Amino acid sequence: MSKIIHVGKLHLPKQRKSSYAILRETDEGELQWYIENGTGENATDIKEKTVSEAIRSAKRRWRDAAFNPLHCGTRFELPERDEHGAKALFCQMVQSQRVNNGIYFDEQINQQCIVNNISTEAIALMKRWEKEGKL
User: Fold this and answer.
1) Gap between the Cα atoms of 94 and 135, Å rounded
2) What is the spatial distance between Cα 125 and Cα 80, in angstroms, rounded to a whole number?
């Protein structure tokens, strides 16, 4: 399975409960959304080159399904520790949670980072997927 980049939540009309939309990096380097079902994941036709484009496309496509990206915390860059931080992606939250002190090295920005203010839903989802072997 390819790496999970981010996660969103949506309420599909045919289902009575909400589902998770999972943004994964494909082998071709594109980002594609998948919808979690009871037994696995169904691929969608939403593919983009960047995370922001992928989230924008998902919001546009699933507007009627109340799509909303999962709150995975706020990422702060160290050692300066910027004052405001930025919204963390699911993969950044996982990296931060896997180390004892929460500080991890982000290779994309070549900087040490920490993720704080993570929602309980995101933590629970990470633990569930670790047990299932999705991460």
Assistant:
1) 9
2) 30
**And the tokens for 106?**
């982000």
Give the strands of the sheet with 31-36, arranged side by side: 41-48, 31-36, 19-25, 4-10, 68-69
Look up the pTM and report it. Answer: 0.90
Token pair belonging to 82: 């910027």
For the chain, the structural domain boundaries read 4-69, 74-132
For residue 117, give the nearest of 93, 83, 94, 82 by alpha carbon: 93
Backbone angles phi, psi at 94, to 5 degrees: -60, -45
What are the pLDDT tens digits along the chain (135 aa)? Answer: 688 999 999 987 777 778 999 999 988 889 999 998 878 888 999 999 999 999 999 999 998 888 999 999 999 988 776 678 899 999 999 999 999 999 999 998 888 999 999 999 999 999 999 998 888
